[in-house]
Amino acid sequence: MTAISNLSRRGFLKGIVGSGALILGAHYVPTLLWADESAPNRTQVDLATLHPNIFVGVDTDGTVHIVAHRSEMGTVIRTSLPMVVADELDADWKRVKVEQAIGDARYGDQNTDGSHSIRSFYDTMRQAGATARFMLIQAAAQQWGVPASECKTDLHVVVHSASGRQIGYGELATAASKLPVPKKEELQLKKKDAWRYIGKGMDSIDLTDLCTGKALYGMDVRLDGMLYASIEHPPVFGGKVKSYDDKAPLQVAGVQQTVPIDAFKPPCGFQPLGGIAVIADNTWSAFQGRKKLNIAWEHGANETYDSGAYEKELHETARQPGKAIRTEGDVDSEFAKAGPVFEGDYYVPLLAHASMEPLVALADFKDGKATVWAPTQNPQAVQAIVSQQLGISKEDVICHVTLLGGGFGRKSKPDYVAEAAVLSKKTGHPVKVVWTREDDIKFDYYNAVAAMYLKASLDAKGKPTAWLQRSVFPPIPSIFDVNAVYGDASHLQQGWTDMPYNIPNIRVENGPAKAHVRIGWLRSVANIYHAFAVQTFTDELAHRAGRDPADYLLELIGSPRTLNLKATGYPNYGASPDTYPWETGRLRRVTEMAIEKSGWGKRKLRKGSGMGIAAHRSFLTYVAAVVEVEVSADGDITIPRVDMAVDAGLVVNPEITRAQFEGAAVFGTSVARSGEITAKDGRIVQSNFYDYPVARINEAPYQTNVYLVESDAPPAGVGEPGVPPFVPALCNAIFAATGKRIRQLPLSRTNLARGVDSSRTQAANGRPWLSLSE
Amino acid sequence: MIQLKINGVARSFSGSPDMPLLWYLRDELGLTGTKFGCGVALCGACTVHRNGEAVRSCVTPMSSVAGADVTTIEAVGGNGLHPVQAAWMKHNVPQCGYCQSGQIMQAIALLRATPKPTDEQIDDGMAGNICRCGTYQRIRAAIKTAAKESV
Asked: What is the pLDDT of residues B11-22, one digit of tens each?
C-alpha cells in the first residue's frame, strides 16, 4: 500500500480523495495534494496567479493552465482529463494550455496503465476545476458587493445576472488568489446538462502536430553534445558477458567507445538487462559498430528454454489439479454423474508489444543529478529505477515525459531509461539509447503464454451443470520474485475468477508455471487468453447443443444479477464493488445490443463467411463483439465487419473512445492472426515485422462499428477492454465459416484452406493433446 | 561529397555514402518528423518523397539521393496543410501518431499516382505502412476524403 501524503502549506485543505484503484497489483491511495509552495519542480500551474491546486491555475491574462499528469500514447488522455477540469471551471478551451507533468509524487499515481486514468482521476479533475471556479465567483461577488449566490459563470467570465455585469477570469485571478481555498464539501459540481465538454468530447490538443511531423516523441529529443548508444543485450534472459572484443567496432567511423553494462541482480524488475553498449556520434554509427562486436556470453540457466517443450508442459500442468481460486457448489460430484462431459484445451503464446516507436531514452547525468527524457508510461518508476541504478535519491531524478509512439504496457517498464542513465554516468555525456526493432521484439516483457483447460458437464439441453476452468501461465510477479509461479489475484481476476455464467457448480483453478523470459503487462493482459478460452468453449458448447451461439451465450449469462465474488478476494480492478459492481445485466445488454446492431442471424453472408460472438468484462467495462469473417478457399481470412457494443459507464470523450475500440479490433486481429513469440535454446526466435507480423490495412477489419451505451454509471476503462472479446469472436466466426475450431493461437498454426483437416494439422505440429475429447 | 535538396534547401553531405537518408534527416538535420520504426523497410514509418516518389528512408543510402529532391513531412504541406493532412485531421486519424508521418507521405504519393483509388488500390498502396494503434479505418476514410476534395 503506497499512501502518498504531503504536508502542504494549506495542509488543512487536503481532502479530495479519488477512488482507490488497484493498479498492477499495487494498491495506492490517490490524494489530491493542494498547492505546495516548496515543491521543487514548479509548473506553469504552480506559477500562475491563481493556483488553488496542482492541476489548474489561472493567469491575469485569462490563460488557464492545466497539468496533464498521465502519459499520452494515443488514448488522448492528456486532452480528455484537462477537458474535465476545463468543463468544471467553465473555461474557454481555446484559452487553455496543457502542460505535461514530469514524474512527481505530488500527483499521486502516474502509471498510465490499466485503463484507469479517467476512472481514477475524473472526480479529482472535476473538483480541481470546480475549486478554481468557486474562488473566481467569490472574488467577483466581493468586487460587486453582491452575494456569491447571485453570481454564476459563463464561458471564461463570472456573471451577475440581476445587474447584467460580467468580468473575465483573468481580471479576477489576483483577487481570487487571496481567498481561502474552499473545502470539498463547499464545491458545487456542474449538473450534467451544463457540461460543455464532458460527454461531447474534444480533438486531441496534439492533432495538428501529429499530422505535420512536429510532435515530439522520445525518439525525437535532442540535447547539445549528446551521444547515441546501441546495446547488445545477453541473448538469453539472465545471461552475462564473459568477455568481449571491441577492436572492430572502434574502427567504425563515428563510434567513440564501448561501455559494458552490468547484468541485473535477480529478480530483474526494471533493471537493465546488461550487455555492451556502443557509443557513437549518431544512431547509425552506433548500430554499425554494434554489429561488429565480438562477445562471449555466459548464458545461464535459461539456455535450455524451448517454447515448444514449454507449451507441452503447460498443457500437462493444466490437466492436473491446481490451486482453487473460486469454488461454488461441487463440480466433482457433478462430473461423477452419468451425464455427458465436454472438455477442451486452449493455448495462447507469448506476445510482444511492438509499439511503433522502439524503446528509446535520453539521459543527462550531471553534478549528482539525472535528467531524463523518455516516452514512459510510468515516470515515477523511472525515478525509482534510475535513482537505484545511480545511487542517488529519487528527488534527484527529473523525468520529462515525451509523447509515446505507442506503449501498450511496455513503456511502463523503464529498463531502457535506466540504461541511458547508467551510460550517461559512465561516459560523462548526455546519452540517448536507441533500441532497434530487433531489440524491441527480442527483449520485451512479454504477455504471458497460457494454457487453459475447461470442462463442463451438461444437462439434456446441453446447458452446463458444472464448470471447471484451469489456467497455467508464468506470472508477472516473477519479474519481482524469482520463485513466483502462481498467478496473482490482479491477473487471475482478469476474465478468470469472475467467469460470470449462471451455473450452480463452478470451480476456477490456477496451476504453476516458471518464467524463462520477462513477463509483463500488454494491452488487456490476462484477459486476452482467459477470454479466448472461456468464450471459445462457450461457442463450442452452443454448437454441440445445436443452439444459436448468441442465444446460448445470453442464456449462460442469465438474468440480471450482481456477482458476489467476495470469497475469492476479487480485486475488481482496484475499484470498490459498491461503486463498480459486477452486473451481469450490463453484460447481457451489450450482448443484446451487439446482436441487434450486427444483424446477427439476419444478414445474408457470402460463401465462406461466418459470424462469431463473444462478450467480456474487463477494466470494469462491458463489451460484446460480433465479428464477420470471410475465409477464402486457400484459407486466407478477411474481416469485412466488426460490431462492438460497449458499456463503459459515463464516456468523457466519445469519438476518441470509439477510436480506441476500432484500434482494439486491429490489435486483436494481430493477436489472432500472427501473434506468437517462440524461443529456442533460450533465445527469442522472432526479430522484426517479417517474423512477428502485425495487422496491416489489408488484413485489419474493414469496418468496425462501435456502439456506446448511454450511461450515468461511473466511468470505466476504454483503452484495453475491446481486445479480449474480439479475439474469440473472430475465432468463433471462423468456426461458423469453416467448421474448423481454433483452440490455439495464432491462426497461422492452423491451415484454414478448404478440404484440409485442421485437426490433422495440429497433430502434425506435434500437439495432439489439443484435440478435444468427450 | 553528395549534393541534394531537402525540402527545397540545397545540402551537401560528406559522411559515409552508405548511411541511410533517415539518419541524415534525423540526427544531422534534426528533421525528426520522419520516424525510425523497423530499419528494414517493413513498416513505412520513415517514408519520404524522393523526386516525388515515396521511398523508405531507412534503407535509402545517401549515395542514392545524390542530386535528388527530397521532401519530408515537415515541408509537404508548403506553408500550410496538404489536403491529405487536412483530411487526416478531419477524420481524427492519429492515435499515438508515430506512424502517421509515413502514412501521410505514402498516401500523398498514392493519390498522385491514383487520384481516385478504390479500396483495393488503397490496400495495395498502404499495406507497407503499419499502424500498431490500428487507425486503418480512418486512414482509408481520410484518403477517400482527400481524393474527393482535390477534384
From this structure: 999 999 999 999
